[in-house]
Predict the 3D structure of the following.
Amino acid sequence: MYAYTAPFQNPAGSPIRELFKYLSEPGMISFAGGYPASDLFDIEGLRVAQARAYQDSILCLQYGPTDGLPMLKEQIAALMARRGASCSPEQMLITTGSQQGLDLLLRVLVEPGDAVLTEQPAYPATLQALRLQQARIGTVPVDGDGLDVGRLASLLASGVVARPKLLYTVPTFANPTGATLARERRIALLRLAVQYKFLIVEDDPYGDLRFAGEGVPSILALADQVDGSRDWVVHFSSLSKVVAPGLRIGWTVAPVEIARRCIVAKQTVDLCTTPWSQAIAAQYLADGSLERHLPRITTAYGHKSGALCRALRAGLGDAIAFHQPEGGMFVWARMPGVDAAQLLASAIERKVMFVPGKAFFAEQPDAAALRLSFAAPGVDAIQEGARRLQQAYQALA
Ligand code: PMP
Protein backbone atom coordinates (compact mmCIF):
# COMPACT_ATOMS: atom_id res chain seq x y z
CA MET A 1 0.00 0.00 0.00
CA TYR A 2 2.84 2.40 0.78
CA ALA A 3 5.74 3.21 -1.51
CA TYR A 4 8.71 2.23 0.62
CA THR A 5 12.30 3.00 -0.22
CA ALA A 6 14.15 0.05 -1.74
CA PRO A 7 15.96 -1.08 1.43
CA PHE A 8 12.73 -1.05 3.46
CA GLN A 9 10.50 -3.01 1.10
CA ASN A 10 11.31 -6.28 2.81
CA PRO A 11 13.71 -5.37 5.60
CA ALA A 12 15.10 -8.15 7.76
CA GLY A 13 15.17 -7.28 11.47
CA SER A 14 18.09 -8.13 13.73
CA PRO A 15 18.31 -11.91 14.10
CA ILE A 16 19.67 -11.52 17.63
CA ARG A 17 16.88 -9.21 18.78
CA GLU A 18 14.40 -11.89 17.56
CA LEU A 19 15.73 -14.16 20.31
CA PHE A 20 14.90 -11.64 23.03
CA LYS A 21 11.37 -12.98 23.47
CA TYR A 22 12.80 -16.15 25.06
CA LEU A 23 14.97 -14.22 27.49
CA SER A 24 12.09 -13.41 29.81
CA GLU A 25 11.14 -17.09 30.25
CA PRO A 26 11.58 -18.01 33.91
CA GLY A 27 14.79 -19.92 34.60
CA MET A 28 16.32 -19.20 31.16
CA ILE A 29 20.13 -19.11 31.14
CA SER A 30 21.32 -16.92 28.29
CA PHE A 31 24.61 -17.10 26.44
CA ALA A 32 22.90 -15.06 23.70
CA GLY A 33 22.82 -11.22 23.53
CA GLY A 34 25.84 -8.98 23.97
CA TYR A 35 24.69 -7.65 27.31
CA PRO A 36 27.40 -6.76 29.82
CA ALA A 37 26.96 -8.19 33.34
CA SER A 38 24.44 -5.97 35.11
CA ASP A 39 25.77 -6.92 38.56
CA LEU A 40 29.12 -5.40 37.55
CA PHE A 41 27.76 -1.94 36.76
CA ASP A 42 29.52 0.68 38.85
CA ILE A 43 26.24 1.89 40.32
CA GLU A 44 27.88 3.93 43.09
CA GLY A 45 30.50 5.54 40.82
CA LEU A 46 27.79 6.49 38.35
CA ARG A 47 25.54 7.83 41.12
CA VAL A 48 28.33 10.11 42.31
CA ALA A 49 29.13 11.20 38.73
CA GLN A 50 25.47 11.87 38.06
CA ALA A 51 25.06 14.05 41.17
CA ARG A 52 28.17 16.07 40.30
CA ALA A 53 27.17 16.40 36.64
CA TYR A 54 23.72 17.67 37.57
CA GLN A 55 25.23 20.54 39.53
CA ASP A 56 25.37 22.15 36.09
CA SER A 57 21.74 21.33 35.45
CA ILE A 58 21.34 23.73 32.52
CA LEU A 59 24.15 21.98 30.65
CA CYS A 60 22.38 18.64 31.22
CA LEU A 61 18.94 19.86 30.22
CA GLN A 62 19.69 22.11 27.23
CA TYR A 63 20.59 21.02 23.67
CA GLY A 64 24.31 20.56 23.19
CA PRO A 65 26.70 20.84 20.25
CA THR A 66 26.20 18.14 17.60
CA ASP A 67 29.79 16.91 17.85
CA GLY A 68 29.55 16.45 21.61
CA LEU A 69 30.16 18.39 24.84
CA PRO A 70 33.74 19.73 24.89
CA MET A 71 34.20 18.39 28.46
CA LEU A 72 33.43 14.85 27.29
CA LYS A 73 35.54 15.16 24.16
CA GLU A 74 38.45 16.18 26.36
CA GLN A 75 37.98 13.14 28.61
CA ILE A 76 37.66 10.80 25.63
CA ALA A 77 40.83 12.27 24.08
CA ALA A 78 42.61 11.53 27.38
CA LEU A 79 41.20 7.98 27.38
CA MET A 80 42.35 7.46 23.78
CA ALA A 81 45.81 8.80 24.72
CA ARG A 82 45.99 6.21 27.53
CA ARG A 83 45.17 3.62 24.87
CA GLY A 84 48.08 4.95 22.78
CA ALA A 85 46.20 6.96 20.15
CA SER A 86 46.22 10.73 19.80
CA CYS A 87 43.24 12.64 18.46
CA SER A 88 42.35 16.31 18.10
CA PRO A 89 38.85 17.64 18.92
CA GLU A 90 38.22 18.14 15.16
CA GLN A 91 38.85 14.47 14.49
CA MET A 92 36.29 13.34 17.06
CA LEU A 93 32.54 13.25 17.47
CA ILE A 94 30.48 11.85 20.30
CA THR A 95 27.70 9.57 19.07
CA THR A 96 24.61 7.95 20.57
CA GLY A 97 26.32 4.59 21.02
CA SER A 98 29.06 3.60 18.60
CA GLN A 99 26.32 2.00 16.51
CA GLN A 100 25.33 5.49 15.44
CA GLY A 101 28.90 6.23 14.38
CA LEU A 102 28.71 3.42 11.83
CA ASP A 103 25.33 4.59 10.58
CA LEU A 104 26.62 8.15 10.07
CA LEU A 105 29.78 6.96 8.35
CA LEU A 106 27.82 4.83 5.89
CA ARG A 107 25.50 7.74 5.08
CA VAL A 108 28.53 9.86 4.32
CA LEU A 109 30.50 7.31 2.30
CA VAL A 110 28.49 4.45 0.86
CA GLU A 111 26.25 4.68 -2.19
CA PRO A 112 24.03 1.81 -3.35
CA GLY A 113 26.17 -0.73 -5.21
CA ASP A 114 29.48 0.39 -3.65
CA ALA A 115 31.90 -2.40 -2.80
CA VAL A 116 32.70 -2.79 0.88
CA LEU A 117 34.50 -5.52 2.79
CA THR A 118 33.81 -7.05 6.17
CA GLU A 119 35.50 -9.76 8.12
CA GLN A 120 33.59 -13.02 8.08
CA PRO A 121 32.00 -13.85 10.48
CA ALA A 122 31.03 -10.27 11.40
CA TYR A 123 28.90 -8.28 13.82
CA PRO A 124 25.32 -8.63 12.48
CA ALA A 125 24.23 -5.01 13.07
CA THR A 126 27.04 -3.92 10.75
CA LEU A 127 25.86 -6.35 8.08
CA GLN A 128 22.34 -5.01 8.56
CA ALA A 129 23.51 -1.38 8.24
CA LEU A 130 25.52 -2.21 5.10
CA ARG A 131 22.53 -3.99 3.56
CA LEU A 132 20.19 -1.09 4.31
CA GLN A 133 22.74 1.16 2.62
CA GLN A 134 22.60 -1.26 -0.36
CA ALA A 135 26.35 -1.82 -0.31
CA ARG A 136 27.87 -4.75 -2.18
CA ILE A 137 29.39 -6.79 0.66
CA GLY A 138 32.53 -8.81 0.09
CA THR A 139 34.04 -10.89 2.88
CA VAL A 140 37.48 -11.75 4.19
CA PRO A 141 37.85 -14.81 6.41
CA VAL A 142 39.00 -14.73 10.02
CA ASP A 143 41.18 -17.24 11.87
CA GLY A 144 42.47 -17.50 15.45
CA ASP A 145 44.64 -14.37 14.86
CA GLY A 146 41.79 -12.30 13.43
CA LEU A 147 41.31 -11.11 9.86
CA ASP A 148 43.29 -13.12 7.30
CA VAL A 149 45.23 -10.15 5.93
CA GLY A 150 47.24 -12.37 3.55
CA ARG A 151 44.00 -13.46 1.94
CA LEU A 152 42.84 -9.85 1.74
CA ALA A 153 46.09 -8.94 -0.03
CA SER A 154 45.55 -11.63 -2.65
CA LEU A 155 41.87 -10.70 -3.14
CA LEU A 156 42.93 -7.10 -3.77
CA ALA A 157 45.91 -7.98 -5.96
CA SER A 158 43.89 -10.33 -8.15
CA GLY A 159 41.12 -7.76 -8.57
CA VAL A 160 38.48 -10.20 -7.24
CA VAL A 161 37.54 -7.31 -4.98
CA ALA A 162 37.89 -4.12 -6.98
CA ARG A 163 38.15 -0.74 -5.27
CA PRO A 164 36.40 -1.41 -1.97
CA LYS A 165 35.51 1.82 -0.20
CA LEU A 166 36.05 0.41 3.25
CA LEU A 167 36.85 -2.66 5.28
CA TYR A 168 34.99 -3.17 8.56
CA THR A 169 36.71 -5.08 11.34
CA VAL A 170 36.50 -5.60 15.11
CA PRO A 171 40.21 -6.33 15.58
CA THR A 172 40.28 -6.76 19.34
CA PHE A 173 38.18 -9.48 21.03
CA ALA A 174 35.92 -9.58 18.01
CA ASN A 175 32.20 -9.99 18.02
CA PRO A 176 31.54 -12.85 17.36
CA THR A 177 34.87 -14.72 17.26
CA GLY A 178 36.62 -13.28 20.32
CA ALA A 179 39.81 -13.26 18.20
CA THR A 180 42.41 -10.48 18.28
CA LEU A 181 44.22 -9.35 15.16
CA ALA A 182 47.96 -9.91 15.56
CA ARG A 183 50.15 -6.80 15.57
CA GLU A 184 52.01 -7.63 12.35
CA ARG A 185 48.68 -8.19 10.59
CA ARG A 186 47.54 -4.74 11.77
CA ILE A 187 50.63 -3.18 10.21
CA ALA A 188 50.13 -5.16 6.98
CA LEU A 189 46.48 -4.07 6.88
CA LEU A 190 47.47 -0.41 7.26
CA ARG A 191 49.91 -0.78 4.35
CA LEU A 192 47.18 -2.32 2.18
CA ALA A 193 44.79 0.52 3.03
CA VAL A 194 47.36 3.08 1.86
CA GLN A 195 48.17 1.07 -1.28
CA TYR A 196 44.58 0.40 -2.33
CA LYS A 197 43.03 3.55 -0.82
CA PHE A 198 40.28 2.02 1.28
CA LEU A 199 39.22 3.05 4.77
CA ILE A 200 39.84 0.68 7.63
CA VAL A 201 36.80 0.95 9.87
CA GLU A 202 38.06 -0.22 13.26
CA ASP A 203 35.24 -0.97 15.69
CA ASP A 204 36.69 -1.25 19.19
CA PRO A 205 34.11 -1.54 21.95
CA TYR A 206 35.85 -4.46 23.69
CA GLY A 207 39.56 -3.54 23.65
CA ASP A 208 39.75 -2.64 27.35
CA LEU A 209 38.23 -5.98 28.41
CA ARG A 210 41.51 -7.94 28.39
CA PHE A 211 41.84 -10.60 31.10
CA ALA A 212 44.77 -12.64 29.72
CA GLY A 213 47.74 -12.28 27.38
CA GLU A 214 49.63 -9.24 26.07
CA GLY A 215 47.94 -6.02 24.92
CA VAL A 216 48.06 -5.05 21.23
CA PRO A 217 47.74 -1.37 20.20
CA SER A 218 44.67 -0.42 18.19
CA ILE A 219 44.97 -0.03 14.44
CA LEU A 220 44.46 3.71 15.00
CA ALA A 221 47.40 3.82 17.41
CA LEU A 222 49.61 1.83 15.01
CA ALA A 223 48.75 4.16 12.11
CA ASP A 224 51.49 6.49 13.41
CA GLN A 225 54.00 3.82 12.35
CA VAL A 226 52.85 3.45 8.72
CA ASP A 227 53.34 6.50 6.51
CA GLY A 228 50.10 8.06 5.27
CA SER A 229 47.88 5.45 6.91
CA ARG A 230 46.20 7.71 9.45
CA ASP A 231 44.18 9.16 6.54
CA TRP A 232 42.71 5.70 6.02
CA VAL A 233 41.51 4.82 9.53
CA VAL A 234 38.14 5.49 11.13
CA HIS A 235 37.90 4.27 14.71
CA PHE A 236 34.77 3.67 16.78
CA SER A 237 34.64 3.01 20.47
CA SER A 238 32.06 3.08 23.22
CA LEU A 239 31.38 3.17 26.94
CA SER A 240 28.70 0.48 26.51
CA LYS A 241 30.79 -2.54 27.46
CA VAL A 242 33.06 -0.91 30.05
CA VAL A 243 30.62 1.45 31.80
CA ALA A 244 26.97 0.95 30.76
CA PRO A 245 25.11 0.64 27.45
CA GLY A 246 22.22 2.65 28.91
CA LEU A 247 24.38 5.77 28.76
CA ARG A 248 24.42 5.43 24.95
CA ILE A 249 27.85 7.07 24.68
CA GLY A 250 30.11 6.17 21.78
CA TRP A 251 32.63 8.10 19.71
CA THR A 252 34.18 8.27 16.27
CA VAL A 253 37.76 9.30 15.51
CA ALA A 254 38.18 10.03 11.80
CA PRO A 255 40.13 12.21 9.37
CA VAL A 256 38.83 15.78 9.85
CA GLU A 257 36.97 15.97 6.54
CA ILE A 258 35.11 12.73 7.26
CA ALA A 259 34.35 13.76 10.87
CA ARG A 260 32.93 17.08 9.61
CA ARG A 261 30.56 15.26 7.28
CA CYS A 262 29.49 12.78 9.98
CA ILE A 263 28.59 15.77 12.16
CA VAL A 264 26.38 17.18 9.38
CA ALA A 265 24.73 13.74 9.03
CA LYS A 266 24.14 13.64 12.79
CA GLN A 267 22.39 17.02 12.69
CA THR A 268 19.45 15.39 10.92
CA VAL A 269 19.51 12.20 13.02
CA ASP A 270 19.32 13.45 16.60
CA LEU A 271 20.77 17.00 16.73
CA CYS A 272 23.01 15.90 19.56
CA THR A 273 23.66 12.97 21.89
CA THR A 274 21.83 13.45 25.22
CA PRO A 275 23.88 16.11 27.04
CA TRP A 276 22.78 14.70 30.41
CA SER A 277 24.36 11.36 29.58
CA GLN A 278 27.44 13.06 28.16
CA ALA A 279 27.91 15.12 31.31
CA ILE A 280 27.63 12.02 33.51
CA ALA A 281 30.12 10.16 31.31
CA ALA A 282 32.55 13.12 31.38
CA GLN A 283 32.33 13.34 35.16
CA TYR A 284 32.72 9.56 35.57
CA LEU A 285 35.90 9.62 33.47
CA ALA A 286 37.22 12.77 35.21
CA ASP A 287 36.70 11.05 38.60
CA GLY A 288 39.04 8.24 37.50
CA SER A 289 36.19 5.79 38.10
CA LEU A 290 36.70 3.85 34.86
CA GLU A 291 40.29 2.91 35.69
CA ARG A 292 39.29 2.10 39.26
CA HIS A 293 36.35 -0.08 38.28
CA LEU A 294 37.54 -1.76 35.09
CA PRO A 295 39.71 -4.40 36.84
CA ARG A 296 36.58 -5.69 38.62
CA ILE A 297 34.93 -6.29 35.26
CA THR A 298 37.95 -7.88 33.57
CA THR A 299 38.68 -10.13 36.56
CA ALA A 300 35.07 -11.33 36.64
CA TYR A 301 34.99 -11.87 32.86
CA GLY A 302 38.24 -13.83 33.09
CA HIS A 303 36.64 -16.17 35.63
CA LYS A 304 33.46 -16.48 33.61
CA SER A 305 35.30 -17.15 30.37
CA GLY A 306 37.43 -19.82 32.08
CA ALA A 307 34.33 -21.40 33.64
CA LEU A 308 32.51 -21.55 30.30
CA CYS A 309 35.49 -22.97 28.39
CA ARG A 310 36.15 -25.64 31.04
CA ALA A 311 32.48 -26.62 31.25
CA LEU A 312 32.15 -26.87 27.45
CA ARG A 313 35.26 -29.04 27.20
CA ALA A 314 34.17 -31.24 30.10
CA GLY A 315 30.60 -31.64 28.84
CA LEU A 316 31.04 -31.76 25.08
CA GLY A 317 34.64 -32.91 24.59
CA ASP A 318 35.48 -33.46 20.93
CA ALA A 319 31.97 -32.49 19.85
CA ILE A 320 32.91 -28.81 20.20
CA ALA A 321 35.91 -26.76 19.04
CA PHE A 322 36.78 -23.19 20.02
CA HIS A 323 39.66 -20.84 20.85
CA GLN A 324 39.77 -19.67 24.45
CA PRO A 325 39.47 -15.85 24.31
CA GLU A 326 41.89 -13.47 26.07
CA GLY A 327 39.26 -10.79 26.58
CA GLY A 328 35.88 -9.46 25.51
CA MET A 329 32.62 -11.29 26.03
CA PHE A 330 32.42 -14.12 23.49
CA VAL A 331 33.35 -17.70 22.77
CA TRP A 332 32.89 -18.67 19.12
CA ALA A 333 32.50 -22.40 18.71
CA ARG A 334 31.92 -25.04 16.03
CA MET A 335 30.11 -28.31 16.58
CA PRO A 336 30.89 -30.38 13.48
CA GLY A 337 27.85 -32.13 12.06
CA VAL A 338 25.44 -30.10 14.19
CA ASP A 339 22.89 -27.63 12.85
CA ALA A 340 23.13 -24.84 15.43
CA ALA A 341 19.56 -23.67 14.70
CA GLN A 342 18.25 -27.14 15.60
CA LEU A 343 20.48 -27.24 18.64
CA LEU A 344 19.04 -23.88 19.72
CA ALA A 345 15.47 -25.23 19.52
CA SER A 346 16.49 -28.17 21.69
CA ALA A 347 18.42 -25.83 24.02
CA ILE A 348 15.48 -23.44 24.48
CA GLU A 349 13.34 -26.39 25.63
CA ARG A 350 16.00 -26.98 28.30
CA LYS A 351 16.16 -23.28 29.15
CA VAL A 352 19.50 -22.30 27.77
CA MET A 353 20.19 -19.99 24.83
CA PHE A 354 22.98 -18.97 22.50
CA VAL A 355 23.15 -17.37 19.06
CA PRO A 356 23.42 -19.70 16.05
CA GLY A 357 26.35 -18.62 13.86
CA LYS A 358 24.31 -18.01 10.71
CA ALA A 359 23.49 -14.42 11.74
CA PHE A 360 27.16 -13.47 11.50
CA PHE A 361 27.73 -14.50 7.89
CA ALA A 362 27.20 -12.18 4.93
CA GLU A 363 27.45 -15.23 2.65
CA GLN A 364 27.92 -19.01 2.87
CA PRO A 365 26.86 -19.41 6.52
CA ASP A 366 28.46 -22.10 8.64
CA ALA A 367 25.48 -23.97 10.12
CA ALA A 368 27.69 -25.63 12.74
CA ALA A 369 28.90 -22.37 14.33
CA LEU A 370 27.56 -20.74 17.47
CA ARG A 371 28.33 -17.73 19.63
CA LEU A 372 28.24 -17.97 23.40
CA SER A 373 28.53 -14.88 25.58
CA PHE A 374 29.87 -15.49 29.08
CA ALA A 375 29.50 -11.88 30.27
CA ALA A 376 26.00 -11.75 31.75
CA PRO A 377 25.41 -15.07 33.61
CA GLY A 378 27.16 -15.84 36.91
CA VAL A 379 29.68 -18.71 37.18
CA ASP A 380 27.10 -21.12 38.64
CA ALA A 381 24.63 -20.31 35.85
CA ILE A 382 27.41 -20.76 33.28
CA GLN A 383 28.14 -24.26 34.59
CA GLU A 384 24.45 -25.17 34.68
CA GLY A 385 23.95 -23.65 31.21
CA ALA A 386 26.80 -25.74 29.80
CA ARG A 387 25.22 -28.87 31.33
CA ARG A 388 21.89 -28.04 29.69
CA LEU A 389 23.66 -27.46 26.39
CA GLN A 390 25.22 -30.89 26.63
CA GLN A 391 21.75 -32.38 27.25
CA ALA A 392 20.34 -30.44 24.30
CA TYR A 393 23.13 -31.84 22.13
CA GLN A 394 22.55 -35.41 23.33
CA ALA A 395 18.84 -35.07 22.60
CA LEU A 396 19.67 -34.27 18.96
CA ALA A 397 21.82 -37.33 18.42
N1 PMP B 1 30.10 -2.80 17.60
C1 PMP B 1 30.14 -4.02 18.10
C2 PMP B 1 31.14 -4.98 17.57
C3 PMP B 1 29.26 -4.42 19.10
O1 PMP B 1 29.31 -5.67 19.57
C4 PMP B 1 28.30 -3.49 19.59
C5 PMP B 1 27.29 -3.84 20.66
N2 PMP B 1 26.84 -5.13 20.68
C6 PMP B 1 28.30 -2.21 19.04
C7 PMP B 1 29.21 -1.89 18.06
C8 PMP B 1 27.32 -1.17 19.44
O2 PMP B 1 27.57 -0.66 20.69
P1 PMP B 1 26.97 0.68 21.24
O3 PMP B 1 26.19 0.32 22.45
O4 PMP B 1 28.16 1.54 21.54
O5 PMP B 1 26.11 1.32 20.19
